[in-house]
Amino acid sequence: MRHACPVVGDSMIVTHDEPAARSRTNYIVRLSLAADGLPGRYEEVWTRTEDKVSFELCCIPFFTYDLSLGDVIRTTTDDGEYEVVSKAGR
Fold first, then answer.
1. Domains in the chain: boundaries
2. Cβ neighbour number for residue 4 with a 10 Å cutoff
C-alpha cells in the first residue's frame, strides 16, 4: 500500500492520496499545523464520523504530531484547531 503525502498549491495543504484505512472513511477534516510550528499550513486527514462532531482518524498523519491512526478528535474552531477525544494506543 502506498502512502503519498504531496503538498498542494500555494495554500500549503498536505493531503493523503491513499489513507491506511480508506474503506472506513466518510469525511475529510482539515487540521491546522500552527501548534506544530507551521502557521498557515494544514493537513487534510481522512476520518470516520457518525455525528460530524467526533472524528476517528483513518490515515497516518504526517505533520500533525501526537496523532495516530484510530485516534478520535473533535474540531474546536473553523480554522482547523482540534482536541484529542481518545487515543488508539498506537
1. 7-86
2. 9
